[in-house]
Amino acid sequence: MIKPFAYASASTVAEAVQALDGGCRPLAGGTDLIVLMKRGIVSPERLVNVKTIPGIRGVEEGEDDWRIGALTPLSELAASDIPSVGRNLTVLVQAVVESATPQLRHAATLGGNLLQRPRCWYFRNPRIECWLKGGARCFAVQGRHASHAILGGGPCWMVHPSDPAVALTALDARVELVGPRERRRVELADFFTEPRSGARSETVVEANELITAVFVSTPPPDSRGAYVKIAERAAWDFALVSAATQLSFDGDLVDDARVVLGGVASAPWRAGDAEEALCGRALTPEAIEAAASASTAGAEPLSENGYKVELAQAAVREALRRLRQGPVWQSRAAGPRKP
Amino acid sequence: MDALANKLGLDPLDLRLKNYAEVDPAGETPYTGKGLRDVYAIGAQRSGWRDCDSAPPQEGPWRRGRGMASQLWGGGGGPPANAIVKLLPDGTMEVLVGVQDIGTGTKTVLAQIAAEEMGLPLAAVRVVLGDTRATPYGPTSAGSQTLPSAGPAVRAAARACLRDVLELAAQMVGRADADIDDFRVERGEIVYGPQDDVRIPFRDVAAKMDGYTLVGDGARGPNPRDARVNTFGAQFAQVEVNEETGQVRILELLAVHDVGRVINPMTAANQVYGGVIQGVGLGRMEERVLDGETGIQLTASLENYKVPTMMDAPDIEVSFLDRADPKANSIGARGLGEPPIIPAPAAIANAVSDAIGARLTDLPITPRRVLQALRSREEGR
Q: Which 3 state secondary structure label does DSSP give B104?
């Protein structure tokens, strides 16, 4: 049973931010928040509907970056009217297309997608008081953890469930946060934090801050990206493991590389060793293999999730292979579908 | 079975044919009807099972395999099951049965049975189900028994109601002393006479009913004492397995079933589509994961107890033997709810094993389990 709560609609960002605190949460698509409330995992006393705020929805192309409003539904990103989005932000569009279902993508917003809570089956169970919910310990590490973290685990072993977050990390995205006093931009890499004692949270967002936009810089001209998601179900599933790759080329050689893993850690995981293995080399099968093996450096799998090491390497391998095959933005179900 | 066939160097289908049970091995009891041999023949022919060079060239990390599995299940139904059939003064029929239509087409097929027995068009039949205050006793929606239990009861009730109709018709033509069995129904008319020369439209009988309702009741008779009622089937699957990611794609699944007489080909095929998709769920993703310490089921919501989506459904081809089984019951039909779920996971598992050369013995077949099987294959080499 959902606990009674007060409800109000905000018409400006300032108005929303004024109302926000620990007991008052912003409501956008509600595809996660309402579910969490129904199960009693979170019980805010007030909800502020932010969908009524104008100006923070939609994609705007600037001179050297894109501003994606926090209220932009995932479906709008997947079918953006701006052709340059599909061409330049391939990795993001592919990640969005692989997320959830068409119905959910119409409701879910990008800001909410970044703020969705872990899908850990202990965290989501109202009868279990796990560490992330303020309890004494993580139940997964000693229990059932086939879908849990293999990198950077502990004291909580959940994995971040967002597909777009992995792609946005590969694009060096920045998140704009507005609080009562200031407006700040945070690198996505710093936006997600490993939950620690004293801050049992997945992000640096303060209780009275609202995400208003995500900024992505224009990648260099010869830059390509791909997103590979491996899940148990063909649709409507969270990644067991995913990989986002964004490579810039100087001629045949990789000039700059981002290799980011999803489903392996409490936040999108930059595989620095894999990026190093690619830089300065041509994207040969050997280079791909080297990067794939290096991508899971430091992995410490638990007894049931060792397969994720192999799976992560396979995802990186596949994502790099797709970049080798040249322009990819039309080859899969990604990008705007024009009749 | 397939591991055994592999060890013996036999084709999995040949192993099954070599060990074909003509009678129920437990008690040497004959079956009321068993067409499994013909099911195998249809399945082998349609799936190209005997074509040796059916495997296309392997591309990248994907490996192709095929597998089959058989199904034996109950589904004979039995008593108690009752039905009431009413002929209303407007010439339409009402059928009351205490069973449910859980999406399997029960309402349609029970209407068909009543309409055929009464000789009235399907449009003249209204079926009332599910209300235990208004209907006589019916069995639960379990054990693939709704049709074989309730169907014969409906037929018997329609027959009883029809006898009253025929008696009334006999009186109308001044033959109240005639043998009722000499009357019959044909396309909405009651027919009698040496040259079928007496023809009374049903609606004329109804008009004479003067506001009365004719009511017949019927009960499901006993099952045969000296024979076993079972359903049979076989499914043939073609899959692709990615050796790097452990992902499985089911390309095609052919389902051939012997459930006696098929009352309605469309609702029957539809049950097989649904059953196969549920079998795909059982085989590929549905899992009851328990926490060892607390005993809590961790997959108690649709978020992580994964049922297949349409994107996971393979191309499904359905075929029935459609051979009436008059020894089983008075409609010659057996149940179909569960049978198509039964062989699907095994057929998929056999096809996966065929593709990767390693056997999986746990369901569901997730990427994790496929990768584990591949690892133990490498260690065994």
A: coil
- Amino acid letter, B346: A
Structure tokens at B105: 């087409």
Query: What does DSSP assign to residue B257?
Result: E
Q: Tokens standing for B253?
A: 């699944």
Cβ count within 10 A of residue B130: 17
* Residues of chain B found within 8 Å of residue A317, distances taken between Cβ atoms: 244
Q: Do B244 and A144 touch (CB under 8 A)?
A: no
Q: Do B247 and A127 touch (CB under 8 A)?
A: no
Contacts of B310 in chain A (CB under 8 A): 235
Residue in A101, A142, A233 closest to B308 by CB: A233
Contact assessment for residue A69 and residue A213, using Cβ atoms and an 8 Å cutoff: yes
* pTM for the structure as a whole: 0.93
The pLDDT-based confidence of A79 (bands split at 50, 70, 90) is confident
Per the CB < 8 Å rule, is B298 touching A121?
A: yes
Burial A279-297 (b: 16+ CB within 10 A, else e): eebebeeebbebbbbbbbe
Q: Which residues of B touch A237 (CB under 8 A)?
A: 306
Q: 3-state class of B107 per DSSP?
A: helix
- For residue A236, what is the DSSP state? S
- Contact with chain B for residue A121, Cβ under 8 A: yes
What tens digit of pLDDT does each residue of B306-323 get?
A: 999 999 999 999 999 999
Looking at the partner chain, which of A121, A122, A311 has a beta carbon nearest the beta carbon of B245? A311
- Catalytic positions of B are 338
Q: What is the pLDDT of residues A102-126, one digit of tens each?
A: 999 999 999 999 999 999 999 999 9
Find out whether B115 and B161 touch, Cβ atoms under 8 Å: no
B116 Cβ contact list (under 8 Å, min separation 6): none
Cross-chain Cβ contact A233/B299 below 8 Å: no
Query: Are A111 and A77 spatial neighbours (Cβ–Cβ below 8 Å)?
Result: no
Q: How many angstroms separate the CA of residue A143 from the nearest CA in chain B?
A: 6
Residues near A103 by Cβ (< 8 Å), separated by ≥ 6? none
Whose tokens are 């393979």? That residue is B314
Q: Give the side-chain half-sphere CA count within 13 A for A324.
A: 16
